[in-house]
Each structure stands twice: as structure tokens, then as C-alpha cells.
Amino acid sequence: AAPFLAAALVTGGTVTVADWPHSTTQAGDALRGLLREMGARVELTKAGLTVSGGAGVHGLEVDLHDVGELTPTLAAIAALADSPSRFTGIGHLRGHETDRLAALVREINGLGGDVTEEPDGLVIRPRALHGGVFATYADHRLATAGAVLGLVVPGVEVEDIATTGKTLPDF
């Protein structure tokens, strides 16, 4: 659900994910608080989880150790924010489908961003981004992060978007 909820925030739109549980241990549930801190309006009702943007996108400082899989999407949002972000506790992301930290630095900076890798995380200082190819490294979470950026940065081309088929076959 992360890229869809992020889409609402960065475009100023509204997305509802139906049947969102009121209680879960899934990492994605952290999005309710994280996206709220980043500027979204978030509401959980019987219908589902609704996220709306429009009040701007803000950076945040947060330890993502327990929800590291959210990092690529949050990094994409942070690159579009009005203030810097620092994500810590995610050094373990170097051992996933790809070295996700190095890949996020390389790809966001390749679009004109300013992301620095730290031993245990990332520092993202928003700058005006431009179009270009966003490589995915056969990593579905990098592909969806590139897609989030492409919603608001003209000319972003996500290389191998089909890699999202691992988790989102119809993405």
C-alpha cells in the first residue's frame, strides 16, 4: 500500500485502501503515523485507511529499523519535501535484493537530489529534481519509489517497472 498512499501525499490527492485493519503488526501500519508527520491527513474508518495530501510535504527524522521496507517509498517522499529528513536504523537494507541505501542515493541524486548515505541510514536534503532514468536493480521497492517520484517530476522513467510483479502484479 505504501506507494499508493504516498501518491496521495505527493500529488495532493486522496487514496483509500479498503479494509485496512484497525489492529495489525504489519510494518505498513506505521504509515499512518509517518505519513501524518510528513504532512498527510490520515483517517482510519470502517471503509479503510484514507490518506490525503495538499498541506505540503515535510521531512522527518525517524528510526525505521522495525519498518525498513518502507524506506524506499519514504525516501522518495522525503526527496520532494520542504525540509530535510534523516532515516536511521536501516543499515541492514544493504543486504536486500540490492544495497537499497546505495541505490537510493545513486538514483535520487541522479535526478538532481541531495542524499547522503550514513553508516546506519540516509540524510535527504530536498532539491529541485529533474527527469531521468531511475534504475530498479530488480528490486520492487525501488521501482515503486521511482514511480512515486515520477508522479510529480516530469520525465522520470522507471527502468524495469515489471519488477513490481513480485508483490504488485498489476502495478
Radius of gyration computed on alpha carbons: 15 Å
Note the quaternary state here.
Answer: single chain
- Tell me how many strands there are: 9
- Helical stretch count? 5
- The helix fraction, in percent, is 25-40%
**Low-confidence residue ranges:** none
Mean pLDDT: 96
Strand and helix order: HEHEEEHEHEEEHE
Distance between the termini: 11 Å
Helical/strand content category: alpha/beta
The strand order across the widest sheet is: 4-5-7-6
What composes the largest sheet?
4 strands, mixed
**Principal-axis shape:** globular
Q: What share of the residues does DSSP label as strand, in percent?
A: 15-25%
Explained architecture:
The chain is an alpha/beta fold. The protein is 28% helix and 22% strand. The strands form 3 sheets. Strands 4-5-7-6 form a 4-stranded mixed beta sheet, covered by helices on one side. Helix 3 runs parallel beside helix 4. It is globular. It starts with a helix and ends in a 13-residue tail after the last strand.
